[in-house]
Amino acid sequence: MDLQYFWDHFLGAGPSDINDTLLIQEFYAKWDTMAEKSWTGAGLKFIVMNVIYLIQQISLWFLVPTIIFAYLCYYFIIRPKNYVRDLSEVGYDYFIEQAATRHQKKSIQQLVKNIRKTSKIGNIPPVYPNGWFNILESSEVSKNQVKYVTALGENFAVFRTPEGKVHIMDAYCPHLGANMGLGGVVRGDCLECPFHGWQFDGNSGKCTSVPYSEKGKLFKVEFVAFAGLSAFQNKFHRKNYIHIPGVYA
């Protein structure tokens, strides 16, 4: 029996043609022999045919719930979670929702007064709570790219060096106040202002180069240090983020 005969009579046969046990045993034996001569073609067709055979043999009432269950497991367990909550959502809205669910006929002013009465008197919290603030996802910044981000009332220029290291600094250029986040160019570890070519180091914020001046005072731009990390791995979000650790304005 040659390879062409094997392909025509066994691999070319549909799943419904292979019914009795002897023919199936002969099929596997011939496949083991012929697959050594043409492993890629015979193996691929064998796998495809077996998948089709299993799909035809499995009941539709069992297959559909299995697919739905597998998708739900992927969506809720395997798929990375991205929980986002806007800062403007924090306030007294949840008290209003509770009052609505309990059918309490109280105005917003009355609810706010009740909250103030029951709240404990203590030190005023900082303007920004201690912790990490997500301003940009790491995947959104490629090598030699500059991103302009406004967050927490500040303007930031985020850029990634050719080596893949991320730097965050104030987008304000101390020369004439240009926005380096818009049109800035990455030069090694430095960010170059698009207007007059001043370069600022991403590690220290110091001005390292002025194109038209060899001597003179070098300015410094404020840079944002974030624990020496170019990306922060959040164990809850399971995604790489660029963060500012604990901005205490």
Q: What does this entry look like structurally?
A:
The structure is a single chain. The protein is an alpha+beta fold and 249 residues long. Helices cover 33% and strands 19% of the residues. The strands form three sheets. Strands 2-3-4-9 form a four-stranded antiparallel beta sheet, with no helix packed on it. A four-stranded antiparallel beta sheet has the order 5-6-7-8, with no helix packed on it. It has a three-stranded antiparallel beta sheet with strand order 1-11-10, with no helix packed on it. Helix 1 runs antiparallel to helix 2 (21-34).
List the helices and strands and how they pair.
Layout (H helix, E strand, L loop, with lengths): L2 H9 L9 H14 L4 H19 L2 H19 L14 H9 L6 H11 L13 E6 L8 E6 L2 E7 L5 E5 L14 E3 L2 E3 L6 E3 L5 E3 L13 E2 L7 E3 L4 E7 L4
Antiparallel strand pairs: 1-11, 2-3, 3-4, 4-9, 5-6, 6-7, 7-8, 10-11
Helix pairs in contact: 1-2
Global outline: flat
Question: Count the strands?
Answer: 11
- Beta-sheet strand percentage? 15-25%
Question: What order do the helices and strands follow?
Answer: HHHHHHEEEEEEEEEEE
Task: Give the helix proportion (percent range).
Answer: 25-40%
Uncertain spans: 10-20, 225-249
Distance between the termini: 82 Å
Question: What class would the helix/strand composition place it in?
Answer: alpha+beta
Q: What value does the average pLDDT take?
A: 67
Described by strand count, sense and barrel closure, the largest sheet is: 4 strands, antiparallel
Gyration radius from CA atoms, angstroms? 32 Å
Total helical segments:
6
* Strand arrangement in the largest pleated sheet: 2-3-4-9
GO molecular function, one term: metal ion binding
InterPro entries: Cholesterol_7-desaturase, Rieske_2Fe-2S, Rieske_2Fe-2S_sf
Keywords: 2Fe-2S, Iron, Iron-sulfur, Membrane, Metal-binding, Oxidoreductase, Transmembrane, Transmembrane helix
Transmembrane segments: 58-78
